[in-house]
Amino acid sequence: MKRANIIQTSDLTKIYGMGDIQVKALDGVSLQIQEGEFVAIMGPSGSGKSTLMNILGCLDRPTSGQYLLAGEEISDLDKVQLAQIRNRRIGFVFQSYNLLPRTSALENVMLPMIYNRDNHTSEAEQHEKALNVLESVGLADRVHHHPQELSGGQSQRVAIARALVNDPVLLLADEPTGNLDSRSGKEIMALLSNLNAQGSTIVMVTHEDDIAAYAQRVIHFLDGRIVTDELNGHPSPAAVHQEESCESV
Amino acid sequence: MNLSKVIQIAWKGLNRNKLRSLLTMLGVIIGVAAVIVMVSVSTGTEATIKDQIEGLGTNLLFVQASFSRGGPGQAPASGGLVYEDAFAIEALNGVKDVVVEQASSETVKAGNVSIEAVSILGTTPGFPSVRDMDVASGRYFNQTDLDRKQKVAVLGAALAEELFGDSPPVGQVVTVGNTKLTVIGVMEEKGLVGSTDYDTYLFTPITVVFEKFTPNQFARLFGDRVRVIYVEVESQDIIDDVIYQIELLLAKRHDVSLEEPDFVIRTQEEIIETQEATTAAFRNLLGWVAGVSLVVGGIGIMNIMLVSVTERTREIGIRQAVGATPTDIRLQFLAEALLLSLVGGVIGVLAGVGGSSLFGALGDLRTVVAPVSILVAFASAAAVGIFFGYYPANKAAQLDPIEALRHE
Question: Quick one: which of B48, B71, B193, B311 has the fewest CB in 10 Å?
Fold first, then answer.
């Protein structure tokens, strides 16, 4: 069965710096990611994976090349349109959670709905929706806690709930377990796997092989180019468990 | 994002840093309160002066000697304004009544109370009516007292109090200089008229002042000098005509040309206008001073908003990442600045209204809080908020989301 492309890029280039010193962060990246895929992007620092995530997440625009998100041309949208795409079609999960401080978990989750002009539901309905999403990530009993009262794993769950609340077509996770201990990390990965199993398309950047092992497909970057792009098969959680003792750096 | 949500978010933003928000507001509070207090004090003063002057009627002319021709210390070429001038003016067509005053200064004694340098005002009997004053007890002197140069005195309220305390002054004798005068009346309290405090005056027939309280009796050979001649005109319509007649008459009597008179004639309206111009200038000055403090308050808002934008760069990045457009961010910070200035404005209005009545009570001043000053002060506060909030808000809206997210 042929599934729809969520991400389709052709010859994406990103050049930083004008004048004499130019850095090619992305050098002709062509990539297709289909609906329902769980893709891990790996590579050393400076390989261009963060730049790619920023462009895929519509936080940045490529210098040249084309990017279609769920069939929609993104490359030539303006700031306002990009903000709306981020709001409605993309969910972000960051390494450092990026929750608003002194703001309850519930209000953090409701944040994307505030900025969604297409969402004409009442505040009570939005409230209900946010509660449901928080419940689905296992935080029903923490909705009124502030980020400083939550553990790292709980904070990241709030961030995932926030990413999901506008029903995006694409979930982007930038080292989602980078700030977590291994146990919380595994819980977060289990949550992401579960979301993927329910149909979410996930693209994740990671340094760690055992985290990448959760994905079905692993893409390696080096110097702004894709060097390998291979299917992972489905590793069993047990297999990952055994690798834990010999964590690579 | 709807407006109530914008305000709600802005309110939360300000609440996070209550002390800072309050201090920032203080500039606006002081500015707005200052505008209202200043304007209310000067409006009150203006109203008081206008009431006083208008109480005297608008058909009144003031004729005074003008010493513009001679320098200070140099005697004027003519004898100035004399008592006989008043009779000549009284004979003119259209003149209803004439009142004359001449002042002196003497030591006044009653029993063992002695007061130096009391203003002695010699007048004709019509004086209380042209100055809109009333007698509290006893009576003012009449034409007979004047003609017979009766040694009688009418005391201002404060002077009577000082000389006699609680005992009734009427019928008592006061010694003015070397002359004994019988007190026949006490005036009602009047308060300040312009800069004159009639409550401290002693009133006596002008003929007594000529006879007893004129230092140089030889100078009287050229006529009895008077300070002011009040001329009550029959109707407002002929006032210009009467002025012209008086000018011709006095020029002839004093042997001066109309171009260089040794007297001035002023109408009640001119005096009101002069007063109004003075108080209006005063009020405008105060208004500007207060306005400047409002602008300073606005700069305070801008300063703190700029700090806030820098501090909250990461928050801005997060909001942008989840889909806030530049307009959303701009609105949020603009709403914060506007809330600061509006809440400051409301507190300032309350403080201003309270301050005005406090000022009025403490300073024994009449203060009038003009609704328009509240409106202007409040609108200026809002304008200050928008004006000084726009630049920081715009700065926030222009932030690059990636940079903002990386900000620590």
Answer: B71
